[in-house]
Design goal:
The protein is mainly alpha-helical and 358 residues long. The protein has 13 helices and no strands. α2 crosses α7, α4 packs across α7 and α7 runs antiparallel to α8.
C-alpha cells in the first residue's frame, strides 16, 4: 500500500514542467516554432508548460491541505495568504528588476502588473481558500460554472477578437490598470485579470485530480482514474474547440480541458513507469527541478535578465552560432545551455538537501 507515501512521479512531472518553462523562455534569436507560443488560435508544445504547472499545483494544493483536514485554522489561512502575497510580490519584483538593471529604478509608472507568478499566486490563493471553505463535492460543478461564465464573457465581449480595441479581456485590463502596466506583444495580456477565471477552473481540475489520487487505494487505481479523466478532458476539449478554439493568450475553455487532459495523461504514464514499474533511474535531472520548482523558475528569470544586461548571453550565443550555423539550432543550443546552467544551481541545492519553499 502506497497511498500515504509521496509519489516520486508528482515531483518528476513538476520538474519536467519547470525545465520546459525555462527551455521555451530561453531561446536567443530565431527559435523553432514548436518552442514559441501560438500567435493566437492554436497550440504548440510551448503552450503546454504553464498549464501543466497550474494543473500540478492544483494536485499539490489538495495533497498539502489534506494534511490539516482542510480545517480553516488561523495558522493555515495565514500561510495561504502569506504565500499568495509573496508569489505576487516576487512576480512584481522580476518585472521591476528587468527595468531597474537598465537604470530605470523608479519604473512604477510603466511596471507590468501581470505575469506568470502573479497568475500562479492568484490561482493558488483562490483554490486553497476554496479547499478550506467549500464542500469538495462541488468541485466539478464549480469548474463547469466558472468555464460557462467565462465562455459567456468571451462570446458576448468579442473575447476571440485579435483586436484590443474591441476585446473585452483587453479592455477590462486597460480600464482597470492602464496601457503602461500591461503586456504589449499580444492583443490581450496573456496573464490578465479576466483570464484568471479560466485559470482558476484549470487549477481546480488539478485539485480534483489530487482528490482522486488521495482517495484511490492503490497506485494502479490512481493511474486508471487519471487516465480516464485525461481522456475525457482531451476528447471534450478538442470537441469544444470547434466552437471555442484553443487559445493560450485568452486561456480558452477548450485550452483548459485539452491541456489538463494531457497533463493528467502524462501524470498517469509517469505513475505507471516510476511508481509501479519502478523505472526511476532516469529521473534525477527532473527531480532536481521538481523539488525546487518555483525557486529555480525565479532564479532563471532573474539570471536571464542579469546575463542579458551584462552581455554574457549575447557572447555565449555568438560562440554557439560560430559552431552551429543555422539560427534555429543555435537558439535551441543556447536554450539547452541555459537549462543546464539552472540545473547546476538546482543540483547544488539538491545535494545539500536544501528545498526552498515559495
Amino acid at each position: 500500500m502506497m497511498e500515504n507515501k509521496r509519489l516520486l512521479s508528482l515531483d518528476i512531472l513538476r520538474g519536467i514542467t519547470v525545465a520546459g518553462m525555462i527551455l521555451v523562455n530561453s531561446g536567443w534569436g530565431e527559435s523553432f516554432e514548436m518552442l514559441g507560443h501560438s500567435a493566437w488560435n492554436g497550440m504548440t508544445p510551448c503552450d503546454l508548460v504553464f498549464p501543466f504547472f497550474l494543473f500540478i499545483m492544483g494536485i499539490s494544493c489538495y495533497l498539502s491541505l489534506v494534511k490539516s483536514d482542510f480545517k480553516p485554522t488561523p495558522k493555515v489561512i495565514r500561510r495561504i495568504v502569506k504565500r499568495t502575497v509573496l508569489l505576487f510580490a516576487i512576480g512584481l519584483f522580476i518585472n521591476w528588476f528587468d527595468h531597474a538593471i537598465e537604470g530605470d529604478l523608479l519604473c512604477f509608472g510603466h511596471l507590468r502588473i501581470w505575469a506568470v507568478l502573479q497568475r500562479i499566486a492568484l490561482c493558488y490563493g483562490i483554490v486553497s481558500l476554496f479547499a478550506l471553505f467549500c464542500n469538495h463535492k462541488y468541485t466539478v460543478p464549480v469548474i463547469i460554472g466558472l468555464l460557462v461564465i467565462y465562455t459567456a464573457i468571451l462570446l458576448i465581449g468579442n473575447g476571440y477578437a485579435e483586436d484590443a480595441t474591441i476585446n473585452i479581456l483587453a479592455q477590462v485590463d486597460l480600464k482597470l490598470f492602464g496601457y503602461d502596466h500591461l503586456y504589449h506583444h499580444t492583443p490581450v495580456d496573456p496573464e490578465g485579470l479576466l483570464g484568471t477565471i479560466s485559470a482558476v477552473a484549470h487549477t481546480l481540475l488539478g485539485f480534483y485530480c489530487g482528490r482522486l489520487i488521495r482517495q484511490k487505494d492503490t497506485v494502479s487505481d490512481k493511474v486508471i482514474a487519471l487516465f480516464v479523466v485525461g481522456t475525457v478532458c482531451v476528447i471534450g476539449g478538442y470537441l469544444l474547440s470547434y466552437g471555442l478554439p484553443l487559445n493560450k493568450c485568452i486561456w480558452s475553455p477548450s485550452y483548459v480541458f485539452v491541456t489538463c487532459g494531457l497533463a493528467s495523461l502524462l501524470q498517469a504514464f509517469l505513475m505507471y513507469v516510476i511508481d509501479i514499474q519502478k523505472k526511476s533511474g532516469w529521473t534525477t535531472f527532473f527531480h532536481v527541478f521538481g523539488v525546487n520548482a518555483l525557486a529555480l523558475y525565479v532564479s532563471s528569470e532573474l539570471l536571464a535578465i542579469l546575463l542579458g544586461h551584462l552581455g554574457i548571453s549575447g557572447w555565449v550565443c555568438d560562440g554557439l552560432h560560430a559552431v552551429i550555423t543555422p539560427d534555429k539550432w543555435a537558439s535551441l543550443a543556447y536554450a539547452l545551455y541555459f537549462v543546464l546552467l539552472n540545473f547546476a544551481i538546482g543540483y547544488i541545492l539538491y545535494r545539500k538537501k536544501i528545498y526552498i519553499k515559495l
